């Protein structure tokens, strides 16, 4: 008999009963985020038939031109989460400061950070994109401030993403492994399809934007050259390459079949540690990857141990199959 598939709601209720990892307020938060992702998926799927493609004619705090879907997704997540009483505040790639829950609503104990639309350069060409989210507890004290968000990634209580691809799939951890749910559009609910995603320790597949090769630091250049040398080279095996330019899609592939993803520091912007953002891209993805048996560093230390100093700070990201991430990290540390 095929295993009875359960919904996200039933999975969260059972997890709450079993090990208390998901207090009621956190369960409510995760269900609201999932519902918001369903709405974003619906907007994404309209494409040219909805008014969702192209640019919005504005710039975000990162200095990026905002796409219409960046703003739509941001608004969907804010409107879905502000009234439920589970959150004190939110922060987003698309907003300058934090968004405090308005006084007309009850204040909760959680902080929600998100990249509402990841992979924006793929929106208009119908390639997989997604939403990334990270949940932390608000530190004790009455008021909420930006400082409350500046906690290292190991303080997360939930992290996940929703990938809007051929399937709409939600991937989530609350600290007890990584679960995957696929949206059943007829029923309108996310259905559990995998309970313990694991990343093989070894891989033959690397993901990096090769056009930046001339800007990389030596350890990264050495690692990729060795991969490109194939079985005749020091690695003794051939490698394959993938680069989707949506972190969500690249990480989803790695959680599904292994691989190493790198967006390292490069000398195009030497004063920035990297392109990706720590609070709502690197931290949630790093926790998911570690929960699936992989590793995630900035070349020198574990991403989840980094102490943030600002909301939108950037970080160099090396994550995925543990043995490959360890190798690249050792190259950075001069241990090999
Ligand atoms: P976002 O669309 O949220 O700004 O993030 C895009 C990020 C990430 O999703 C992806 O891995 C990376 O940018 C791609 O960068 P390049 O276009 O430089 O390859
Ligand atoms: Mn962006
Ligand atoms: Mn992003
Ligand atoms: Mn984004």
Describe this structure in words.
The protein is an alpha+beta fold. It folds into 2 domains: 8-194, Fructose-1,6-Bisphosphatase, Chain A, domain 1 (2-Layer Sandwich), CATH 3.30.540; 205-333, 3-Layer(aba) Sandwich (D-Maltodextrin-Binding Protein, domain 2). The chain has 8 helices and 17 strands. It has an 8-stranded mixed sheet with strand order 4-3-5-6-7-8-9-10, with helices on both faces. Strands 12-11-13-17-15 form a 5-stranded mixed sheet, sandwiched between helices. Strand 9 (179-184) and strand 10 form a beta hairpin. Helix 2 runs antiparallel to helix 3, helix 5 packs across helix 8 and helix 6 (247-257) runs parallel beside helix 7. It is globular and about 65 Å long. 46% of the residues are buried. The structure holds 2,5-anhydro-1,6-di-O-phosphono-D-glucitol (AHG) and manganese (II) ion (3 copies). The site of 2,5-anhydro-1,6-di-O-phosphono-D-glucitol has 13 residues, from strand 5.
